[in-house]
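Methods — Computational structure assignment.
A single polypeptide chain was analysed. Its primary sequence is given first, followed by the predicted tertiary structure written as structure tokens.
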Amino acid sequence: MKRRVAWTLATLGTASLGAVAGCGGITTPYDFDVPGVTRGEATPVAGTHLSVRWSKVLRPRLGGPYTPVENAAAAIDMRRQRVFVGSSQGMFFAFDGNDGRELFRYDPEAGVEAEAVVDEAWGDVYLASDDGRIHALSGRTGEARWKAPVGGSVRQTPRLGEDALYVVTEEDRVVAMSRENGEVLWSYQREVDVELAISGHAGLTVSEDGRVLYTA
């Protein structure tokens, strides 16, 4: 028996996560059977009304005028209906996408500024922390399979290839890592021909066949 699911994830404010359900807006519908999944094409849903299904605060409630800014977007495992998101205060969360129930939390021992990437085939999730480490976690339990340094802060979403994970650091170093154990397979350091550069990076794009990486 198939059922229709259409819901949207949004960041609400500077340090909270919300799931928005209903009609209207930009949604991602999926048809799925149990236990397999058949994806449908993304189409707008008719109507104009949305309602908040659940929301979560990602940081402790701090007194005073200081409010941390959260830059990491939520990553979604549509097959398993799980939502993953990191906090600049140094915690990574997994929530049930339907009711917002916390599935686990993981401490990367540093802030998380980049969206994680989900391997929907196996359910694993890969996240980058501000201290320049990549963490490979079980998307079901949050147990760390491995964690490895890449030689610089990563604030862009890692990219998955068939047998490698690709990251780019804020220092313009592109690193290919084994998805199995985090071993560095190769790295490339781009030379910047300027005396002064603004911090930041456009990230990586992987070709459809996984053989070419583009960076800017």
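Note: The domain at 3-58+69-215 is CATH 2.40.128.630 (Lipocalin).
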